[in-house]
Each structure stands twice: as C-alpha cells, then as structure tokens.
Task: inverse folding
C-alpha cells in the first residue's frame, strides 16, 4: 500500500467508494453511508430534520455543520470519515468512518479519527465529544474499543408474540370500565404530544436532548411524515371529586401510550413506540406498560425498539424474552462515545 492522501469529500465519491466497499457490513453502516457528503458550514433557516425514533437522530439535517474526509490510494478513494451536528442530541457529534477491507489494520482508521477530532474542535456548537453506533463483535466495535470509546447505550429490536402477556382486567371487569381507561387517541393530540416528548427526554438522559417543543415532537414521532398512523393510551381509572356515587367528569391522566407506525406490507408486525408517563412511580410504570403491551399484542405480533434506559419496558420484556414469548430481531446496536 502506497502512502495515502487525504482531501475533502467531492461529488461522485459515493459511487467510487460503494463500488469498492460493496454492501454495508451492518445496518448502522448503511445508515451512516448516507451522511457522506460535501462539507457544510452551518444550519440554514427553517429547522432541520433530525430523524425519528428509529435512527436516534443520526440523520444529517439539511444545512447542518458537517466535515467529510476521503482517503485516496494513488488517486483512488479507499476510505471516508464524517462528523456532524444534530439538534436532537446536541451534546455529542455523530461520527463515522469506513475503510476498505484491504486497507484495514494499517492505521488508516486511526488517522481519519484523529482528523475528525481536529475538525470537531471547530464545530460551531462548541461540542467536541463524539459518538457513533456499532454492532457487537464486528470490526467497527473492535475499532471503537481500541479508540477508547465507551458504551453509552444498548438497543434491541424485539418482536413480541401474540398472547405473550395475560390480558389485564380493568375496574370491575366491565366493558365500560375498560373503555374508560383504554382509548384510541389522535396522533395530533396535545395530551399525547406532551407525554411522548417528556418520555423521550426522560429515557435519553444518558445523551440529553435539546429542547423538544410540541412541533418537534409531532414531526419526529407523531405526524404523517414520521409514519405514525394511530395511538392507544392507557389512562388512570377516572374518579369523581364528589365521591363514588357521582360520575367522573374528567378522563384519567395518561399512564402509558403506544404509537403505531405504518408498514409497507400488511402481513408484517406493526412497529410500535411504547412508553409511559415519566412521573409514575417505578412499580406503576411497569404495571401500565405491561397492561398496554398485553392489549396491543393480544392477537397480533408487535415490534418494539428496546433501549436499556427504558427501565419499565425492559422489566416487562426481559421475562418474556427469557420465556421465548418474544425474540430479538437482528443484532444489538451499541451507541459508543466519549
């Protein structure tokens, strides 16, 4: 291997590199390859698209600050690296690099990472820390470990089989009692938007979000462009302020929610974002999540994204994974960083 040269990304590099690299080695590689593009100096007006619940904000917003470097061997691109800002999780910069197989273990990745860190020193946000996504026991995971990046989070995609959990009984067991607590809710609901935004913020304290105004929560999780097409909520049992002999005049507060996302094929399990009111005590949060998951997965399978930081959901799903009533789809995703 001759001495490599390094330069900024140019149009057409993606074609040359994809031909050399072949198919992405992991799902994360396929996502991050889309981030390779010419350098950008900052955000334009109008607000970026920071991605949705399935990508953790890895999507590069239009006009966001980005630096992309290409390594060439005798004029042929063989490796690339990118670092960029997003608004959804602003306390670290996303970074990714990929090196052709026949150029690995030769210091190319380490050189590119050093160059990315130098570029990061000039990020407009003042943020210097990096993060990326890898799969366990892959070359990317080994490189991240050698580079000193620590695990920040583990995420799994879980398919919950029909009937994995026993159906709950609400109140006196009547249809009226169930209807009072389990309700379909429009995805444009202000009440739903509020609890979804606060839940996402709560379970991402390990990588804090920026401000999540209602419009942002709607765009990321609940409007048509996010793929959301329905929501079910579990409410507290309604009670009257005037005693048990007087009918309640208000609905109970939301305890848990499940937002479903459209699928290309009707026979595929439904993707669901399942969460709870963050202020619930731990035991109540687990009970609310269990009851709602039992309902939505009673007859048909559902697919959930399960982060270790989702404590209540983990408490419900881990036992049914152990009992083979749910299964992990594909490989785990690790978020690693400074």
Result:
């Amino acid at each position: 291997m001759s001495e490599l040269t390094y330069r900024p990304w140019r149009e057409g590099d993606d074609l040359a590199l994809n031909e050399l690299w072949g198919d992405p080695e992991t799902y994360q590689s396929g996502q991050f390859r889309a981030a390779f593009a010419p350098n950008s100096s900052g955000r334009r007006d109008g607000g970026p698209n920071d991605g949705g619940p399935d990508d953790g904000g890895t999507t590069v917003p239009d006009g966001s600050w980005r630096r992309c470097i290409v390594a060439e061997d005798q004029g042929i691109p063989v490796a690339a690296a990118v670092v960029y800002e997003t608004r959804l999780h602003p306390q670290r910069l996303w970074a990714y690099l990929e090196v052709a197989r026949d150029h690995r273990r030769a210091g190319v990745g380490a050189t590119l990472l050093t160059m990315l860190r130098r570029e990061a020193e000039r990020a407009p946000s003042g943020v210097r820390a990096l993060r990326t996504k890898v799969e366990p026991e892959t070359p990317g995971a080994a490189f991240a470990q050698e580079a000193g990046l620590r695990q920040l989070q583990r995420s799994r995609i879980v398919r919950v089989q029909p009937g994995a959990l026993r159906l709950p009984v609400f109140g006196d067991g009547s249809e009226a009692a169930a209807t009072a607590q389990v309700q379909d809710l429009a995805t444009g609901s202000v009440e739903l938007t509020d609890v979804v935004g606060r839940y996402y913020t709560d379970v991402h304290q390990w990588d804090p979000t920026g401000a999540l105004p209602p419009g942002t929560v709607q765009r990321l999780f609940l409007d048509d462009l996010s793929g959301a097409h329905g929501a079910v909520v579990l409410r507290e049992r309604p009670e009257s302020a005037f005693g048990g002999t007087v009918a309640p005049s208000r609905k109970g507060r939301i305890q848990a929610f499940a937002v479903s996302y459209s699928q290309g094929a009707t026979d595929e399990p439904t993707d669901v974002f399942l969460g709870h009111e963050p202020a619930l005590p731990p035991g109540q949060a687990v009970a609310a999540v269990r009851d709602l998951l039992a309902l939505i997965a009673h007859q048909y399978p559902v697919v959930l994204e399960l982060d270790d930081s989702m404590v209540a959901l983990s408490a419900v799903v881990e036992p049914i994974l152990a009992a083979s009533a749910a299964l992990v789809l594909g490989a785990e995703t690790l978020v690693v960083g400074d």
Q: What stands out?
A: Residues 44-55 have pLDDT under 50 and may be disordered.
